[in-house]
Amino acid sequence: MTAPALSAARAGNGAVVVQAGPVSALLRPRALLVGVGATAGAVGLFLAALAVGSTDLSPGEVVGGLLGQGKSSVVFTVQRLRLPRALVGLLVGLALGAAGALTQGLARNPLASPDVLGVTAGASAGAVLVLLAQGSTTAAAGGASAGLAQVGLPLGAVAGAALAAVLVLALTGRRRVDGAGLDPHRLVLVGVVLAAAFTGLVEYTLVRGDVDQATKATVWLTGSLHGRGWEHVWGVATALLILLPFAAVLVRRLDVLLLGDSAATALGIRVGRSRLWIVVAAVALAGTATAAAGPVAFVALVAPNLARRVVRGPGVPLVTSALLGAVVVLAADLVARGVIPGFELPAGAVCALVGAPYLLYLILRTSKER
């Protein structure tokens, strides 16, 4: 039995068609190279997150701690304190990057993100309401509801994100493009209005709530990986095992939708239903990330923009966006832990300091292009 002949031929946009017998695949060397580089960056930052802290560890100590070997204090520090925090940062970055790629591809707008659609604000409102409600409940029960408090906040965040998504879809779905689906421009406009409304609800709730719980809620709203444990890892990891493959399937439809509604319909894509599922996936990813670490702003905006610039290929760079999202979150957490000795900033604050000027740059650049 002879092996099938392997051949390669150049295609458009720098792509290469590789064929082995009846099987062929379209490869994009630049996208692969960028993906490898982003993966290496995420792995390097992940290992740095395990090594850097109040007591810095050598690479050998990190490896020994991961394997459960060496000093018990090192094993405890790596496995119980730093590993779950780094994993939550990695997973939250993957979720936000993927959510941003889907949102920007759907809206065909580099300024769009789950933050703009009101999803993050809805998740924040849900979590804050749960936090303040738990405060009175815990006090009344003498602390007996502590277990409920651990699951109530992420559930509140997911419920808030889902409510925001339902409102966005309900208000956007009344106007359709060529009778086929959601209007991307109306989607963004409705999202901006809902984000403002949810932000107002959060501020009103904080003013009216208990001072201690309002302080805790304010800290959570900055978006931080501080204190994240294995209970947060399992929740976000389980959700991403379902959501990331789902997004990978949907992005192929999204690439076709970028050709236009008429072309997509001619190619057999059900435009309205596809857009609906893309919105659901983006909302679920953003809600999951917010439930795990709070609203880490601008990651879902910055990562897909960077991915498009470095990949320079057609379509939506979902994988690269997710990897760069992980790089951004892990790097922001490292900076937050080390920029001021003895004091830790929230990772969300670092992302906001970098993301706000980048958003301004995008707005100015978009205005010049028009």
UniProtKB/TrEMBL annotation:
GO terms, biological process: siderophore-iron import into cell
A GO term, aspect molecular function: transmembrane transporter activity
UniProt membrane topology term: Multi-pass membrane protein
SUPFAM superfamilies: ABC transporter involved in vitamin B12 uptake, BtuC
Keyword vocabulary terms for this entry: Cell membrane, Membrane, Plasmid, Transmembrane, Transmembrane helix, Transport
Superkingdom classification of source: Bacteria
Ranges that cross the membrane: 31-52, 86-103, 115-133, 153-173, 185-207, 232-251, 276-303, 315-336, 343-364
Pfam families on file: FecCD
Keyword Nucleotide-binding: no
Entry's Gene Ontology cellular component terms: plasma membrane
Keyword Cell membrane: yes
Compartments reported by the entry: Cell membrane
Matching InterPro entries: ABC_BtuC-like (IPR037294), ABC_transptr_permease_BtuC (IPR000522)
Family: Belongs to the binding-protein-dependent transport system permease family. FecCD subfamily.
Record PANTHER family: FERRIC ENTEROBACTIN TRANSPORT SYSTEM PERMEASE PROTEIN, FERRIC ENTEROBACTIN TRANSPORT SYSTEM PERMEASE PROTEIN FEPG
Protein name (database record): Iron complex transport system permease protein
Higher taxonomy: Bacteria, Bacillati, Actinomycetota, Actinomycetes, Mycobacteriales
